[in-house]
Automatic annotation (TrEMBL):
This is HEAT repeat domain-containing protein. It comes from the Bacteria. SUPFAM superfamilies: ARM repeat. Gene3D superfamilies: Leucine-rich Repeat Variant. InterPro entries: ARM-like, ARM-type_fold, HEAT_type_2.
Length: 217
């Protein structure tokens, strides 16, 4: 499996969502990571940590965003320091991106059985268009859509089962892309910057939890 923009060429970002809404804004943030605008780089890192992964929870945008981030790691521009949130100012962007991939790997819930995730992602007897439900929910929350017929209530339609289906589907997708992430992360285990080496080793340990064969030590 490829990483970087080539790996997500067919992705319709407008049908994906993160913690705060539909993910049409995510590609712009991903491009800003290696752009020349320092403030935009910081905002892009914040977007990864607060929206794409929110308190350890993955969303439908998380897997493709992780593939793009993995593809950006070799870019020399990721060696630049970046200021984001309350993080240290002298931290290389590459180390922060590897930290994001660590969060991504941990969000893949290695301890949860595959069959349990598949059952949650595809609840029996119920066809769910998660993307459409998410778009409608966010539109109603922002007051951008009228519900004149009174036939749609976000609290009822976007229920716990729908949320679990979205998250379970994201977890399954993260597990599927984990081998590609491993290859990208491994290339930075001997990086000359100690922050990057440390972040790479943490990411590799987290990814190994997903990719190691069952029963291996």
């Amino acid at each position: 499996m490829r990483t970087g923009w080539a790996a997500v060429a067919e992705v319709d970002w407008s049908k994906l969502f993160h913690a705060y809404g539909m993910a049409s804004d995510t590609p712009g943030h991903l491009r800003a990571l290696v752009g020349d605008d320092e403030a935009a780089r910081g905002a892009a890192v914040d977007h990864l940590w607060s929206a794409v992964i929110h308190q350890g929870t993955p969303w439908t945008v998380t897997p493709p965003a992780a593939l793009v981030v993995a593809g950006l790691l070799p870019d020399p521009r990721t060696a630049r320091p970046v200021t984001a949130g309350d993080g240290p100012e002298d931290m290389p962007l590459r180390a922060l991106l590897l930290g994001f991939l660590t969060e991504v790997a941990e969000a893949a819930q290695p301890g949860v059985p595959e069959e349990e995730l598949r059952a949650a992602a595809h609840p029996q007897g119920r066809e769910l268009d998660v993307a459409a439900l998410a778009e409608r929910m966010f539109a109603l929350e922002e007051g951008d859509e009228d519900d004149e017929d009174g036939d749609w209530d976000s609290a009822e339609d976007w229920d716990e089962e729908v949320a679990e289906a979205a998250i379970a589907g994201a977890v399954l997708a993260l597990r599927a892309i984990a081998p590609a992430l491993v290859e990208s992360v491994a290339a930075h285990l001997d990086d000359r910057d100690p922050h990057v080496r440390h972040s790479a080793s943490q990411a590799m340990a987290a990814l190994t939890e997903i990719t190691a064969p069952a029963g291996s030590p």
